[in-house]
Fold this protein.
Amino acid sequence: MIGAVTRMWDAIRGTGDAALTVPAMDGAFMADTAIETADVLYACAEPDNLVATSSGVVFSTGGTILRVEQGGAPVVVEEGDASVTALAALSDGRVIVARSGAAPYILGEVGQAPLFPDTKGMTGDITALTVLPDGRVAATIGAEGLAEADWPRDFLKRGSTGSVWVGLPGQAAQRVAKDLAYPNGVVADDDGALVVSLAWRCALVRVRTGKAPETLLSNLPGYPARITRSASGGYWLSLFAPRNQFIEFVLREPAYVRRMIAEVDPRYWVTPRLSPEIGPLDPMLEGCTKKGSEIKPWAPSLSYGMVAHLRPDFHPDSSVQSRANGHRHGIRSAVEADGTLYIASRGGNVIVTLPTAQETVQ
């Protein structure tokens, strides 16, 4: 009852969820071009799901899983038809794989072992995986019954059907949280509790069994994806697209959204994007995206590239970026290994690297 009254009051005043304001790129999110000017490690189609294993950094491109080799081209670990939606590493170096439309499994040298023998209730693609200190595996479902590639539809509908599941490999998983606004990343904090990124809430929450999610960080300037540990004791948080007032306004017009979904090609929906490509039918062309045939760094944009560094208390203290006029956008995963930060740009079709020295990222 209180929630309904609050939403109605916000709608009248234009506050809370009804506000059209977006956070400024300031403070820890001060604009820079570190990602855009970073060294390219490997170019491939839509790289994603970076994870550090005992045998090296592993990532995916479409349905193929590769491992980064020192001083050489990445080596193919596994190929498949269905796209990879999440990866995680076990302590013995084996990799947990989630593919679109399929149950997660453990990738071994001989055959494939299922991660959970019973996945009843886990409908929808897995968006993130992590291995907890006690050996259990946590998995996030972005939206109930929805393929990972169809996330723009859930965004426009302001979906809140995501869930978090935890279980030991070889045993049934248990749901520990539900009705979440597209959980898109998960990591264990210093106490072993789950910290989950909620993309549509632009927030991080702590999830504990039997308790309501506890907000740790809110009102982010972009939509968060994967979160991983940093060697400094903090965390790396990928943000795959920026918030802007145009999108915030469209979300508050349900009739317009329904017609757009029904009548407009999905390529031209007004949603966050992974790619900076701009075509003649792009909805932002009339929003001064270009001026004098040039895209300005500060132009309103549906795509962006950003990785933020968070302190152990989950407060951001720095970030690296590819701005509106850059090409390395759509960053859904970043991982630190041996003093190097690996960043996968799905929109820019490259994996880049940055040293994690203090003067570089803080």
